Amino acid sequence: MSSQFSYELDERQIRLMMQDAELDYNEAMWHKFDEMSFTQARTSSNIGNYIPTINFGISRSIIVPVIFIVLIGGLSAMLFSFVDFKKKEAMDKEIPYMAKIEPSKQPKVSSKPIITTKSVTTVSIAAAKPVVDTTAITDITNTANVLVEPVIKKVEAVKIRETGIDKLSSQVVNPSSEPKKETVIVPQKKKKKIKTEVLPTINATAPNLNEGASEPELDLK
Amino acid sequence: MSQAELISACLKNDKTAKKQFFETYFSKLSYISLRYSKNAAQSEQVVLQGFAHVLSIIGQFKSQNTLSFDEFVTKEFISFVVKYIKNIRNEYYVASTVKALEYKEKTYDLFLDSKFIDLKNVDQDVLLKSIQELVPSQRLVFNLHVIDNYSLSEASELLDTSEQSVKSNLEKARFNLQKTIEKNLKLSNDEQPV
Do B48 and A1 touch (CB under 8 A)? Predict the structure, then answer.
């Protein structure tokens, strides 16, 4: 505030003036109030009776720390999600130093034996022709040595082996009912042993350059 | 209708009793709402809702032994008005800084025409207009402490703020009110025909 300011208002006078001041009565305001109270009563009777009034006295001193705690917790959770401790442990393990030798490219040989199944259906052709046994029965009557042409009575005893035919006929009707399975086992190819290339070791010791070189002898005479 | 009868009739939602209550207290309470509000339109809303509030809690008067019925009604109405104005957040929480050099920067000179302005005898309408032009926080504090005779602690309790901020707002209100009165008086003098 300005240092030049001098307060000149008489507050006691203001109080007396304003405290006792009044406005003229307005009939229109009463009508407005009546309408308002009527509508309020209607709405309160409809809704207000069924909805319980709940007052939560949550002050700012509670809400603000709660929001901060949630924020800090959320941020720390997000940071923890980025850091993976398992990976770090794996990295800490000592990795033995070994020369990696990459084998020359070879076609891949599958270790598993290749098994191919071939279904062969064998239908006996003989089954189509039924086997018929014929037995000729000859009745020869030779009395008084008379040559008599023998009357050959050909009796065909046609007896069909029913059992065999039936079985075969059933096979003919359904030729692919039970296919025979033949398994062909392909012999496993032996995996070639890859010879590891051995690198020659070089001695780290530095060679003596003076070795073998003849030093001139000093003539002390 | 006696006071007790009026209260019991209002509690029974009697329309004639309500009208009598309204007629009795309208003049006083409407001017109070005019002081606390920023303009007449806001005051109208405050009056209507304030009356509804007072009528809804009129049954509590039985327990009030220290206050008279008039005092009870006025106090309840003022507390409602303060809460109403304070709950208009976009108006209440505004910057209330005062420029220190505002006195020097004024564009008008009060003593230009050698007219003396007596700040101790200000016209009621000018004073009301100047109070309404104050920032809501300062207007509420000035009305409560200076006009309605509330102590600083009572005002701070009602406004739900610290006593220090009430003091600060009161000082700002005093400064701004005087400046506003000066400005409004100057303007009213200019408008007057010679």
Answer: no
Is residue B115 within 8 Å of residue B187, measured between CB atoms? no
pLDDT digits (tens, 9 = 90+) for A77-102: 999 988 877 766 666 666 666 666 66
The one-letter amino acid code at B188 reads S
Spans of chain A, pLDDT less than 50: 121-148, 150-165, 168-173, 175-178
- Is residue B186 within 8 Å of residue B110, measured between CB atoms? yes
Q: Is A119 helix (H, G, I), strand (E, B) or coil?
A: strand
> Residue B42: helix, strand or coil by DSSP?
helix
| Identity of the residue in A4, A18, A30 whose CB atom sits nearest the CB atom of B147 | A18
Q: Tell me whether B103 touches chain A (CB under 8 Å).
A: yes
Q: Give φ, ψ of A116 to 5 degrees.
A: -115, 135
Burial status of residue B172 (CB atoms within 10 A of its CB: 0-12, 13-18, 19 or more): buried
Q: Which of B52, B187, B169, B27 is nearest to A40 (CA)?
A: B52
Residue A16 touches partner B, C-beta closer than 8 Å:
no
Tally of CB atoms within 10 A around B80: 20
Taking the model in full, what pTM does it have?
Answer: 0.54
Tokens of A198: 């051995």
- Is A116 near chain B, with CB under 8 Å? no
Q: What are phi and psi of A184, to 5 degrees?
A: -110, 115
pLDDT one-digit tens code per residue, A119-133 = 554 444 444 444 444
